[in-house]
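A quick aside before the break. I want you to see a complete sequence-to-structure record at least once, exactly as it would be stored in a machine-readable document. Don't worry about memorizing anything.
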Amino acid sequence: MQRNIVRCGLIQCSNALSDVTRPVPEIQEAMVEKHIPMIEDAGKKGVQILCLQEIFNGPYFCPSQDPRWYEAAEAVPGPTTNRVASICKQYSMACVVPVYEREMSGVYYNTAAVYDADGTYLGKYRKQHIPQVNPGFWEKFFFKPGTGGYPVFQTKYAKVGVYICYDRHFPEGARCLGLNGAEIVFNPSATVAGLSQYLWKIEQPAHAVANGYFMGCINRVGTEAPWNIGHFYGTSYFVNPRGEIISQASEDRDELLISDLDLGMIEQVRSVWQFYRDRRPEAYPEISRP
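That is the input. The structure line, written in tokens, reads:
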């Protein structure tokens, strides 16, 4: 097997300011400033592709249904995503930067911008599946369902796809990313202990196996007041095309997780498990029905 090693990194992080009554731009700036040393550390350690957590530059505000948080939305590409990309460019590091996107007044998306190692903006993925789940995941108040399908971005190092948080419960989009050529799929998330925690280490390894690619799965850490919907339990991880978790972060601290992914394994696994050859799309018409 010919080796093709790509060093990837995930950053899981707790909210920088516990007082979320402070001005939204101040809260966001504090979170960006908290990330910068971790981003630079990734670059110094040779990370080639870096992914941040879901809406990385603030708290997970979706338990609130407070229109005040619309102020957190911004253009993509925009000042925050470009700022992160400019830091990554210094280290020839491609990056996935999830933020709250403002397309126009009243139209907002949960989005991840993708930049190449030279700072070139490659495109965006908008979260397709929007939950409205008790307790506290009132995302339909804040986000419009994504447009643009399931793009794959050719970076200097690998073909990268993005799936965001609740998307991971839907195998259809994960398959589309594989069909579109993804070698590594990043899933930035914000999920708390309880209802779906047992799924955290089931679904994404299943996607990796079914589609023969690597996944990098990120969850934030800590408990965020004043909502206190639960403990964001971290445990970000990388999983290979065999469904094996090859590295994992802690449950309760800010952390940069680094893993060397051998893309040669994709060819090896797909030569054994011929899922793309043997799939029968004409036999699954129910999947495309409303």
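Two observations worth writing down. The longest strand covers residues 94-104. DSSP finds seven helices and 16 strands in the chain. We'll return to this after the break.
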